[in-house]
Design goal:
It comes from Bacillus coahuilensis p1.1.43. InterPro entries: CheY-like_superfamily, NreC/VraR/RcsB-like_REC, Sig_transdc_resp-reg_C-effctor, Sig_transdc_resp-reg_receiver, Tscrpt_reg_LuxR_C, WalR-like. Pfam families: GerE, Response_reg. The protein has 2 domains: about 120 residues, Rossmann fold (3-Layer(aba) Sandwich), CATH 3.40.50; about 70 residues, Winged helix-like DNA-binding domain superfamily/Winged helix DNA-binding domain (Arc Repressor Mutant, subunit A), CATH 1.10.10.10. Strands 2-1-3-4-5-6 form a 6-stranded parallel sheet, with helices on both faces. Helices cover about 55% and strands about 15% of the residues. The chain is an alpha/beta fold.
């Protein structure tokens, strides 16, 4: 089955460019390209998409509020926030409402298509550059000690959580810490259990709460 995809972007040039580029992907079914969150909700009420590419700053209803409404009404809809470095402060709110990840608007079209497929398969997206900006806005003094104590993480689990927050994949973590990828996966599962989260987005949100 094709991935039912909706674009929510108020800038006509970007919206039309995405519409053309993603429309060339054989496994995508573009069911709408709208200019604000209110219109996105109307589309969802008529024809539920699998994945939404959601802009942040839009008139009438922005992407943050639209994400909140859509995730409350239709939690199965997967939302990818399209952002710029200047908008990174809004990403945390979108993630807290349930967005599956976020990407820079400057991403290459083929990488964007691949990311949409990843999210549709149930994975989450954390752009490494944006993750670093998010973390840079949070006071770091005693942050690691606080999260270790609060959630009972071991030193190694704390190192892996920090790597997750920095946007590293399991493979990259294994290479950085000289562990097998299977060992990293086991650690990640334990971390999720201790933090009471289901995925990397949840872990990043929990990390940001400290």
């Amino acid at each position: 089955m094709k991935i039912k995809l909706m674009l929510v972007e108020d800038q006509e040039l970007i919206r039309e460019s995405l519409n053309i580029v993603l429309g060339m992907e054989e496994d995508f079914d573009l069911i709408g390209a709208v200019v604000n969150g209110e219109e996105a909700i109307k589309i969802c009420e008529k024809q539920l998409p699998n994945v939404i590419l959601m802009d942040i700053n839009m008139p009438i209803m922005d992407g943050i509020e639209a994400t909140k409404v859509i995730k409350n009404k239709w939690p199965s809809v997967q939302i990818i926030i399209l952002t710029t470095f200047e908008e990174v402060q809004y990403v945390k709110a979108a993630l807290s409402y349930g967005a599956e990840g976020y990407l820079l608007k400057a991403i290459h079209p083929k990488d964007l298509a691949a990311s949409i497929r990843l999210v549709h398969r149930g994975e989450t997206l954390i752009n490494q550059g944006l993750a670093k900006q998010l973390l840079a806005s949070i006071p770091q003094e005693n942050k690691e000690d606080s999260i270790y104590t609060k959630f009972g993480l071991s030193e190694r689990e704390g190192q892996i959580l920090q790597a997750i927050a920095n946007g590293l994949s399991n493979k990259q973590i294994s290479q950085k810490l000289f562990l097998t990828e299977g060992t990293v996966k086991n650690y990640v599962s334990k971390i999720y259990a201790k933090l009471d989260v289901q995925d990397r987005i949840g872990a990043l949100n929990k990390f940001n709460e400290i």
